[in-house]
Amino acid sequence: MMVHDTKLLEDLALLEEANSLLNAGFINKEQFNSIKKELPDFKQNSILVQIGFFFLGVFLYSSICCAISLLGIDGSEVFWKICFYIFTIIGITGAEFLAKEKYYQHGLDDAFIVGTILNFGIAVGITSDGYELVIAIFVALISFLMYRRYLYTPAMLIFCCAFTAVLFYGLFEFGEIGKTILPFVAMLTSLGFYFFSKKAIKDLKEKYYYNGLLLINSFCLILFYLSCNYLVVRELSVMLLDNEIRPGEDIPFAFFFWSFTAIVPLVYLYQAIKIHDRIMLWISFLAIAFSIFTIRTYHSVLPIEIALALGGVALFAVAYLSIQKLKYKETGLTFKPDRINNSNAINAEALIVASTFGMKPEVKPQNSPMEFGGGGFSGGGSDGSF
């Protein structure tokens, strides 16, 4: 299924871990260069160059599609119904060719992969007369296949969004009942996929799948919070159920949604500090900010300028006191800069050396048939007796 050589992907993962060790100071530049000579790097590491090649790929792909469109400019309506399928085939062909030439996250291949997903979604939309559920299903399917085939992480993000759309539009098919239970179904689904991805990361053997699983894990955290956020639920109930909420009235289960909005960001923050998860920590900060925005939207006590000023003073005080408390700590939660970003990379040095120089794990020698014992007071392993 994977078009790229898995051995090269594993070597690339080792090289990235070696770079982490270099930045953390565990190995020096000479050691890194010797490792780099043995591990081929076929990935475009400059983000600016990658963006430039992406736009070049977009221009190339769109030029080919426009040239084909000119051939059918006087054609029948049937051509315009199938032309986006033709564009999809062109995108797959271009992505396959670039992958065979060892283009990986280069920019050119990114343009053809994204273009393939986009054109296929448009083609399905034309064929199904804009049926949202069908479009979401097929976009989720092709984005997942493109990720598995080309290991393109943004395709996994598209899959997560499309799968969420499948969940939403699927519940819409059940009418008012489906729309009513939508927040709870989304909450439980995101929770289930979060633990699934967490276990998959823990049991992961192919390192090159780590980023995709980590993206799913982070996406589930965001979806879990938004699924039962009071503002989101209230506005969706107005849009989907046409509920007119008069002054003094509230949505059903309002107490649960308010509690959820207030408690979940704090749980994220506590868990992130406990397990030292940086991504969850940033998500918790964003969730706390959105919860404050939600509360102010419906329960405004102070003018916005005074609230912002007081909030800034409170954040400054918390940041200052936290720095003073943590700046001298050497272990655990500390203000000192991280020596390494990936907690698994601390064990990667032996893996890199073994992979590079062909060293095998140390073998424990067999026990000697001659037994030595004692060592009481006579030395030489004797215990003072004959």
UniProtKB/TrEMBL annotation:
Residues 366-386 are annotated as: Disordered. Keywords: Membrane, Transmembrane, Transmembrane helix. Signal peptide: none annotated. Residues 372-386 have a biased composition (Gly residues). It comes from the Bacteria. The keyword Repeat does not apply. The chain crosses the membrane at residues 47-71, 78-99, 111-144, 151-171, 177-196, 208-233, 253-270, 279-298, 304-323. This is DUF2157 domain-containing protein. The lineage of its organism: Bacteria, Pseudomonadati, Bacteroidota, Flavobacteriia, Flavobacteriales.
